[in-house]
Task: inverse folding
């Protein structure tokens, strides 16, 4: 966040005024987007993780914590997950300690290091303390006053920098008119950025169980100049008492970091598979089972069972028709293997349809505390709790 966020100031933005200025047609010539954006470094992916704010810029202030500290903690955990589990990825950080970094230098660092992905991690702020949830932004122009307000607050951090008017070519982060410049630029990595953002939102809501505020587009300076798929994640609202506690908890930070890692893993694996690059991604059955089932402790979830055996099967894509998101559910005399994890039964049914060409005999199961329940019993229990 920015100086105005921590002071609780908000801007009233007349979006109609902006779009009246844009009535003359603007023709944009877009560069072609590669269907499969290969890693720039001979099969080795470079992921730059950017913990927002830092040093003399605390970001948003909660009742007992500073945004900069939350961002750094989640960023370092995310990077460790990636480094420990995806062997063909190198992780770089714009900062690894509580240091001040100019906004301009963050994307410049990613560009200099030929990054393949740029992930900026933040926490949110709102005047209404009841607002909760996570949202992920990509570079773009939206018609939402709320979205632009978030971008303006993030961009206002440049006011802390010396001679910012020269460095940012006269850009005024508090002036709606300044944001017209962003309409003249089309990011050729927009499609890939949205893909990554959607995966992040899915994992944060399904794995970390946070409220889904969606994938959004807005004009963030930290995303503007990037030459790679780039996202900015608002992990939650520091102005909500319970969410601030969650963002500061070891478990909360670990769940969010794990969710971001999983999204990156799936994105990288899919790109590598389409481009013919072998990633040898480590898929540890014990870690994956513990992660999903532990995070849903005490709750009924629906999964799609694809296989069962009396002996343990190593969890790797070639053993499961290329599927990567497999969970092992052990019982007294056999091992079940399932994909997906849904709170809603219909979502699990749709997932089964998605994979029926490779697993025509797959079926939906209900799981609670690592135990498989009779399906009707689970549905009845879910219905009673509504």
Result:
């Amino acid at each position: 966040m920015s100086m105005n966020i921590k002071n609780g100031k908000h801007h009233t933005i007349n979006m109609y005024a902006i779009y009246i200025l844009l009535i003359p047609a603007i023709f944009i010539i877009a560069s072609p987007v590669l269907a499969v954006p290969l890693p720039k470094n001979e099969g080795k992916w470079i992921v730059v993780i950017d913990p927002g704010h830092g040093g003399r810029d605390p970001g948003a202030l909660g009742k007992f914590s500073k945004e900069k500290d939350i961002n750094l903690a989640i960023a370092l955990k995310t990077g460790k997950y990636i480094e420990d589990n995806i062997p063909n990825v190198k992780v770089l950080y714009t900062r690894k300690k509580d240091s001040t970094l100019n906004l301009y230098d963050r994307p410049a660092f990613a560009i200099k290091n030929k990054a393949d992905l740029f992930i900026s991690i933040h926490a949110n702020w709102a005047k209404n303390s009841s607002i909760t949830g996570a949202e992920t932004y990509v570079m773009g122009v939206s018609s939402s006053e709320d979205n632009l307000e978030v971008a303006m607050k993030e961009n206002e951090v440049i006011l802390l920098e010396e001679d910012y008017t020269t460095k940012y070519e006269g850009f005024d982060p508090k002036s709606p008119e300044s944001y017209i410049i962003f309409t003249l630029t089309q990011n050729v990595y927009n499609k890939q950025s949205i893909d990554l953002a959607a995966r992040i939102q899915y994992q944060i809501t399904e794995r970390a169980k946070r409220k889904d505020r969606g994938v959004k587009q807005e004009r963030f300076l930290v995303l503007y100049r990037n030459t790679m798929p780039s996202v900015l994640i608002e992990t939650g609202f520091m102005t909500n008492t319970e969410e601030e506690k969650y963002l500061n908890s070891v478990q909360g930070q670990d769940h969010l970091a794990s969710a971001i890692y999983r999204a990156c893993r799936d994105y990288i694996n899919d790109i590598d598979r389409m481009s013919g690059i072998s990633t040898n991604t480590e898929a540890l059955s014990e870690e994956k089972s513990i992660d999903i089932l532990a995070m849903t402790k005490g709750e009924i979830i629906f999964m799609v069972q694809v296989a069962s055996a009396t002996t343990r099967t190593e969890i790797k894509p070639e053993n499961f028709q290329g599927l990567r998101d497999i969970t092992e559910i052990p019982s007294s005399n056999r091992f079940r293997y399932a994909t997906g994890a849904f709170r809603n039964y219909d979502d699990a049914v749709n997932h089964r349809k998605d994979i029926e060409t490779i697993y025509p005999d797959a079926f939906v199961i209900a799981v609670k505390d690592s135990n498989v329940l009779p399906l009707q019993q689970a549905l009845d229990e879910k219905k009673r709790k509504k």
Remarks:
- Residues 288-385 form a domain with the Alpha-Beta Plaits fold (CATH 3.30.70.1070).
- The longest strand covers residues 301-309.
